[in-house]
Amino acid sequence: MTPVRIAPRTGNARLHDLLMIALCTVLCGGQRATDMAEFARAKEIYLRDFLKLSAGLPSHDTFSRLFRLLDPVAFGAWFQRFTAALGVEVRGVIAVDGKVLRRSHDKARGTSALHMVSAWGCEAGMVLAQIATDAKSNEITAVPKLLAMLSLKGTIVTADALNCQRAIAAQIVEQGGDYALPLKENQPTLLADVSLFLDDPTTKPDDRHQSVDADHGRIETRTATVSRDIGWLAETQKWPGLRAIGKVVRERETDGKTSTETAYYVLSTALSAERFNQVVRSHWQVENRLHWRLDVVMNEDQARNRTGHGPRNLAVLRHMAINVMQRDGTKGSLRGKFKRAGWNESYLNSLLALL
Q1: pLDDT tens profile 132-149
Q2: What pTM did the predictor assign?
Q3: Helix (H) or strand (E) segment spanning residue 126
Q4: CATH number, span 182-275
Q5: How far, in Å, CA of 171 to CA of 155, rounded?
């Protein structure tokens, strides 16, 4: 089957109508092709105010077929233009992380669950770009392609330890950005050198910062240290763009029990310990403000789209809806905003006006 490519509105009004109905459906809390068809029937008068609908109301089969056949590369490029139209500025911390769509696997066809890798703009609070793989092991090859979609100048890229790779670090620096990458067992020699140096009681770090947060019955103390004394390490490891190393010790106290976790990082810029602490903490936004919302609020893990390009394209559509909601300045939870958009056409109009 030949993929459907995104065309300008004037060139394919039918495609434009279908995509707008689909986006409106997701903004109102819908999830599936059947929801899109039902939304079109329920909101026909509203939709005809700004859509042609010259071929009548689309069925759920039409929506299902559209997302199965839609060219995901072209749709991803459309997402980039869509995000730019929202006035998103790529700056500050960019958190890169992957997420598996658990129900997207198809045993009958022998396909594994889709793995989406996203770039989350921590300052903007929006998805900047995404790319798909069919396995967690392919994330290392997907991240360079994802980063190539973005302007990294003046940003700090964070990722999980899996993506602490020389090639990825070099690409970030070459694109004008900086990195703060955690070290784990996939870089055993580098981890051993950094931890031995920073854990040595005789080592005097260049900067140290401590922050304490108390929330939901939990007290967390984060102590960050940064050292720019890395000449010896740069010589032996030859890590691209290395300018400093850092350590964050997290001590959590919950119900009278205390746990401690230590993480080590390589940095391409000599951040202050306070800023280093902020950057490391910002990375968790991709989990808390994107992945958690996709699963808990938008029920993504239960989505059963499995054929063609459907899982990938609908994942991008959900990212679009999150970006629109993030751009909306009114108060309220994401779940509450979805309900409001479904109940209040004036509010839905205000969301569409952001496009």
Answers
A1: 886 655 888 999 999 999
A2: 0.90
A3: strand 126-133
A4: 3.10.450
A5: 13
